[in-house]
Amino acid sequence: MTTQWNPFACQQDLTRQDLTRRWAPADGPDARWWVAPSVCTPALMLSVWLDLSVLSGIGSTPDVAALIYTLPVVLVGVSWLLPHRRSLRAARIGLAASGVGVALMASKVLAMGLMFLFLFVALLCGWNYEG
Fold first, then answer.
1. Spatial CA neighbour of 12 closest among 4, 22, 3
2. Are 36 and 50 in contact (CB under 8 A)?
3. Which of 102, 84, 70, 99 is nearest to 35 (CA)?
4. Around Cβ 22, how many Cβ atoms within 10 Å?
5. pTM surpassing 0.70?
């Protein structure tokens, strides 16, 4: 009967520096810095285009949409402008994804707020359609 060496049986005594070197990415130039911003920019444009088509269908002006989409455009724009370092990859992905998320939810939250305002006026304040 032969015994095989088990790599998990005896753990080496690792120092903090060994763990940092082994698991943390080295901070240097990031060759894939452009992936998150370039994926999220068309998604942002698609979201804006869809919401503008819906808002124009109800008679809204593009001025309102410019105010709604200022924050998402700034978030995605900052993800393009961050320094191209590996340590900032998570921040770049988070900024770009949150910009798209805010763009997807901005008009829906505004519409929900208008609906609640209408319901407040119509139901609680006694406004009705009877002439």
1. 22
2. no
3. 84
4. 8
5. no
Cα end-to-end distance, the chain, whole Å:
98
Digit-by-digit pLDDT tens for the chain (131 residues) are 566 666 665 556 656 555 555 555 567 888 899 999 999 999 999 988 888 877 777 767 777 777 888 999 999 999 999 999 988 999 999 999 999 999 989 878 887 888 888 888 888 877 666 65
Burial of 77 (0-12, 13-18, 19+ CB in 10 A): middle
Token pair for residue 104? 């997807």
d(CA 10, CA 22): 18
Q: Cα separations (Å) of 91 from 38, 41, 96?
A: 15, 16, 9
**Alpha carbons 42 and 34: distance in angstroms, whole number:** 13
Alpha-carbon span 128 to 41, nearest angstrom: 45
User: Residue 41 has which token pair?
Assistant: 């920019």
Q: Are 11 and 69 in contact (CB under 8 A)?
A: no
Q: Under a CB-based contact definition with an 8 Å cutoff, are residues 85 and 30 in contact?
A: yes
